[in-house]
Amino acid sequence: MFTILNVGLKEYKLYLPAAQAVQLEKQLGGMNPVMVLMEMERSGSFPQITSLLQILHASLQQFNHGTNFNQTLAIYDEFVAEGGNVVELIKVLMEVFQKAGFFPKGTTEGTNA
User: Fold this and answer.
1) What is the pLDDT of residue 71?
2) Domain boundaries, given as residue ranges, for the chain
3) Which of 35, 58, 76, 102 is 20 to 30 Å from the Cα of 18, by its Cα?
4) Which residues on neighbouring strands pair with residue 7, listed in sequence order?
5) Name one Pfam family in it (predicted).
């Protein structure tokens, strides 16, 4: 039901319930959050980092309630400091969307970072 993101010695459970997905869509100016991730396939360019981190922040709320956006930035900075990168983050977020019912099971490559 959730995706695990390991950063440092911490394990974060990521999930995007319907209420968070609706709120996230509003934050993204009405854009479906999946379209943010599909931007890479469609145009060959990376999505905006702000949008990716908004998705990560929304995904943290179910099991890490109260994590604010600045804490999300710190999690991402630590993820990168440990060798993570935007492509790996996108893979994790794709799995979050798959587990939240945006895609049928088996249509995205699963990953644990």
Assistant:
1) 98
2) 3-99
3) 76
4) 10
5) DUF6096
